[in-house]
Every structure is written in structure tokens, then in C-alpha cells.
Amino acid sequence: MTDSTPGRAGPVTARGSAGSAWAPFRHEAFAALWGAQFISNIGSWMQTVGAQWLMLSLTGSAAYVALIQTAASLPIVLFAVLAGAIGDLVDRRRLLLVTQVLMLVAAAALGALAIAGLVSPWLLLALIFAVGTGQALTSPTWQTLQPELVPPAERPQAISLGAVNQNLARAVGPAIGGIILAATSAGTVFLINAATFLAVLGVLLWWRGSSRPAAALPREHVGEAVRAGARYVSASPALRVILLRAGLFVFFASAIWALLPVTALSELHLGSGGYGLLLGCVGVGAVAGAVLLPTLRNRLSPGTQLAGGSIGLACVALILGYVHITVLVAASLAVAGMAWILALSTLNSLYQLSLPQWIKARGLSFYLIVFQGGNAVGSAVLGITAQHLGVSPALLVAAVGLALGPLAGLRYRFQVIPPAELLPAAEWPVPNLAAGDSASGPVMVTVEYWPRNGQEADLLAALRDARFSRRRTGASAWRIWQDAADPARIVEQFVVASWEEHLRQHDRVTVRDQERFARIRSMTDPAHATAVTHWLTPAAPGHHPGPGDMAPGPDSEPRPV
After folding, report:
1. pLDDT interval class at 11 (50, 70, 90)
2. How far apart are CA 343 and CA 375, in angstroms?
3. No. of helices (H) and no. of strands (E), the chain
4. What is the pairing mode between strands 559-560 and 490-496?
5. CB atoms within 10 A of CB 359
6. Helix, strand, coil percentages in the chain from 3-state DSSP, rounded to 5
7. Distance (Å, rounded) from C-alpha 149 to C-alpha 191?
8. Integer Cα distance of 130 and 134 in angstroms
9. I want to staple 99 with a disulfide (CB 3.0 to 4.6 A). Which of 107, 138, 416, 501 is the partner?
10. Distance (Å, rounded) from C-alpha 323 to C-alpha 136?
11. Distance, first Cα to last Cα, the chain
12. Contact 469, 516 (CB under 8 A)
């Protein structure tokens, strides 16, 4: 794998173009959903300030404050895969309407209980977890939906603008939350957050969306969809590298955000308003970073972008830990915002653009699990470290981890896949069943190859690489065989869970896969046709196959069709 620069979208212009950071705003639906999300994100950051400050007043514990971030992130780990599978199968607009109502109710309950003075530390964590659950059910669908509202050339900018939305809200929400918190109470902040979900609900009711194209095959069961998503990600070396490096990065970067309220209170002696302004500096830096992103993408590889963001945050962690001058901390947090948006946008856009359409939401759910799970675990681990060793040593650990993290790129390099290669392959042949055949149980497919003279080793190597394509599209088992009597006869064998799943496998083949199999065919001897055979499990005499017949019985053998 190579670490290459992504495709260039054209020069940056003053007006919206494919190369402009703001080009997606030309599209009404994208702009409306982005604006509603911005209002809701402001409320979420207000809630974060209110919850962290309320927890600090209830316990005075750095560990408990760090657990606020853990409680908000943990639902992603638990529910994102299920949410992603559902998002790929059902009407996305209706799913988002349901999840927004769930978050509104949970946030309103938190506000009412806080005003009544009934919130304990663990009840606060439980209600933050409830709001986070709604976010976990929303995120995979929302993050994959927005880029689809713009032309393909503008999708990297649309994905980046999603991260900008969160960080621009960081520039506004904490400051507003801190002011309201100082003037009223945490309960009022929570109720205002609940009201912001009405903005998203309003836009979703206005936006009718586009219906999914009619499918020739029945809709997947949720369990099958989850397994297909896990199979795709595990069989994609490019995605696995992104997940590894994202988890490594966010584990240490989480310490900056988790320990910032403790630093503001104990080292800088700031109140809630001052803490909100510090977070505002992060947001301002993020916006500045977003403006620079198109230029940086054209000049730097993804690995270099991530390294720059990681090292920048390492420097900020050191300043937070050992330089307790408010003006310098505020300036460093602006740098943190730029570094954060650079790293986050690089990882997010690279991952999303490496997914074909059929797997978008459930594929992204694994990224969210790694990112938010790393965030939750990192916050908890480094929060406990701060509780026992002090805030400065914990931030030193984070700085060392962030500074050394980019070295992983020496072994695990990013692979940039052009979006055109992930489009469905045209005219991929569909297998047929013999008349009267039933297709219950698993399907075994064998492909017999005869390599050209001297190309046996090349063909075997190419087939071993092709196993990833077979598994990504649906194969649960894969193997290659050589004839003991004639080593020039090579058989590829793979198993798919059902005939229906095998038909989906044909639909999932991409241009990239098609080109790989075309290269394999070019290595075969034209005098010996490549033979493809599909094998079914015959039913026992007098037995009518049912959905539970998933494997051959002891007295049955596969038969070809």
C-alpha cells in the first residue's frame, strides 16, 4: 500500500467550485441540514459545558469529570453497528426523525431534574448516556447522508464541513453555555439544548429526501446486514489501517478535551464563562483550519496531514500541562482547533471515500466505534491517571503518545482509493438456477483456472489478493487448491451463506474488483476456459428445505447447478 495524495478537485476559487471549501453550500438541502445540525451542535456543546461544570460542583473529581465524555461516547461503541445496518436498510429520513425525538426527550428530562435539584453524579452520567444513545443511532446515517446531497467532486469538502460544523459550534456553544450557566443554572442550559433538536426536526419534516432505488432482491435482515458490514471492513486492508491509526490518535487526543475543564478551574482559576471562552478559541482555530483544508489536501499526503495534526496537539497538551498563563493557553487552543480539524477531516474523509454505496452507513459505524470508543477509553484512562498522578503528568503522557503516533505510518500507510473504482461493476454476470432447483442453505462456488505457461506463481499470488474482494462482497470462507496430479490446474473455492446472498455478492462487485478479476483472467491459458460451478446442498429424501438448513447433513453432498 502506498501513501499517496488524494485526487485534486481543482483550484480554490473565490466562488463555490469543486475546489472551494464552501462549494457544498450551493445545494439547498445540504445547506439546510448543515444549518440545523449547527444549531443542534451548539446545544450539545452547551450541554457538555453544563454537565462538566455540574459534575465538578457535585464531586470535585477529575475522574468523574472525564467520565462525562465517556458517558457521551460509550453509546457509539454499543449501538453504532446496529444503527449503521438499520440506516442502510430503512427510510433514512424516518429513522432520523425518531432519533431526534429520543434525544429531545432525554435532554428535556435532564434539564427538568437538574432544575428540581434531583441530579446525582450517576444520574447525570445516565442521562448523558441516554442523549448519547440517540446520537449513536443518528450518526452513521447522518454522516453518510450529507455528502450524498452534493456532486461527487464536492464530497470531500462536504465531509470536511461536517467536522467544521462540530468545531464551529465549539466556538459558539461553550461560550453561550458558560454565560447562561453563570447567569442561571445547568438545568436551563440542558433545556435549551433540548429545544435545539426542534431545528433538526423542522428541517427533516421539510426535506422529503430521495427514495432508495427499487431492489430486485428482498431487503436484508438486520443481522445479515451487520455481518456483511463486519465482513467488508475486516476484509479491507485500507479501512483497517485507517481504523488503527484513528484509534491510536484519538486515545491520546481525548485527554486534551477531557482534562481542559480541570485545567481551567484548578490551574487557570477560571469560572464557567472563562472555560466557555477557552473552548471558543478551539472553535475559531477549527474554522481557520477548514479554510486551509483544500490547499493542504492538494499539497500534502493524508499521512502527512495526520502527522501534522497529531504533533500540533502534542504541543498543545504540553502547554496545557506546564504553562499556566491564560493568554498562552487560549492561543494554543486555537492551534489545537486547527490541528484537530486537520486530523479529523483527514481520517473521516479518507474512510468515507473508501466505502462503496451499499455499505456506507454500516461501514462508517465501525469508524465511529473506534473513534468514539478510543475517545471514551482514553478519557477514562487518562482521567484516572490525572486523579492519581496529577493533571500535568497525564497531559505529558498524552503529548508523548501524540508525538510518537505518526510513526505508525512507517508500517501502516494510508491507501487512497479513487471513488470511481468503488462504483458498481457493469454487466457482471448473474448465475442461474436449474429449473426446479431450490436454493436453501449455503452456496459453494468453485472457479477452475489453467494458468499460462510460467505464470502459475503469479496467478496464485493474484488469487490470494482477490480473497479480499470475495470476502468483502459476501464470502464467509475462501481457499485455493492445486491438483496433486496436475499442478497447472488451480481451483478457487468460496462459500456464501445463501443463494440470495450470492446474488447480492454479484451486485456488490465494484469496478476495482472487476479490474482485479480481469487481470487474473489475463493470466489464464486461452485454450482452457475458466469454469465456474455453483454447488448447492441437496435436501434429504422427503425433507422440505427451510430457512434453518444452513449446512450439509452427514449423508448429503453438494451438487452443481
Report:
1. very low
2. 14
3. 16, 5
4. unpaired
5. 24
6. 70, 5, 25
7. 31
8. 7
9. 138
10. 36
11. 38
12. yes
3-state SS track over 136-171: HHHHHHHHHHHHHHCCHHHHHHHHHHHHHHHHHHHH
Spacing of C-alpha 426 from chain mean position: 28
Helix locations, 184-299, DSSP H: 186-206, 222-234, 237-262, 272-299
Separation of alpha carbons 57 and 67, rounded Å: 14
CB 261 within 8 A of CB 65: yes
Exposure string (b/e) for 485-507, b if CB count within 10 Å is 16 or more? Answer: eeebebbbbbbbbbbebbbbbeb
pLDDT tens-digit readout, 182-235? 888 889 999 999 999 999 999 999 987 665 555 556 677 888 888 888 999 999
Cell 493474484 maps to which residue? 462
Instruction: Take residue 148 and report the three cell numbers written for it.
Output: 450524498
Strands 443-449 and 490-496: antiparallel
Q: To which H or E segment does residue 549 belong?
A: none
Q: Encode pLDDT of 280-335 as tens digits.
A: 788 788 878 878 887 888 888 999 999 999 999 999 999 999 998 999 999 999 99
- The answer, yes or no, to whether residue 547 has pLDDT greater than 90, is no
Among candidates 520, 517, 470, 516, which has minimal Cα distance to 496? 470
Residue 280 corresponds to which cell in the numbers above?
Answer: 471558543
CB atoms within 10 A of CB 216: 8
| Average confidence (pLDDT) over 1-9 | 36
Q: Are 407 and 244 within 8 A, CB to CB?
A: no
Non-local (6+) Cβ contacts of 512 within 8 A are 417, 421, 422, 469
Place 548 in a pLDDT band, splitting at 50, 70 and 90: very low
Task: Summarize the confidence of residues 345-351 as an average pLDDT.
Answer: 89
- From the list 166, 36, 19, 165, the residue with the least C-alpha distance to 93 is 36
The SS3 call for residue 300 is: coil
Question: In the 3-class helix/strand/coil scheme, how is 18-73 assigned residue by residue?
Answer: CCCCCHHHHCHHHHHHHHHHHHHHHHHHHHHHHHHHHHHHHHCCHHHHHHHHHHHH
Residue 446 dihedral angles phi and psi, to the nearest 5°: -120, 140
* Half-sphere exposure for 223 (CA within 13 Å, toward CB): 1
Q: What are the residues whose beta carbons fall under 8 Å from the beta carbon of 361, sequence distance 6 or more?
A: 83, 84, 85, 87, 88, 140, 141, 144
HSE of 506, CA atoms in CB hemisphere, 13 A: 15
Helix (H) or strand (E) holding 529: none
Q: Is 370 helix (H, G, I), strand (E, B) or coil?
A: helix
Q: What is the DSSP string of 381-447?
A: HHHHHHHHH-HHHHHHHHHHHHHHGGGGGGTS------GGGGSBPTTPPPP-PPTT----S-EEEEE
Distance CA 362, CA 225 (A): 8
Enter the C-alpha cell of residue 12.
Answer: 480554490
Q: CA-to-CA distance for 335 and 286, rounded, in angstroms?
A: 8
Q: In what order do the strands lie in the sheet with 531-536?
A: 475-482, 490-496, 443-449, 531-536, 559-560
Cβ-contact 56, 272 below 8 angstroms: no
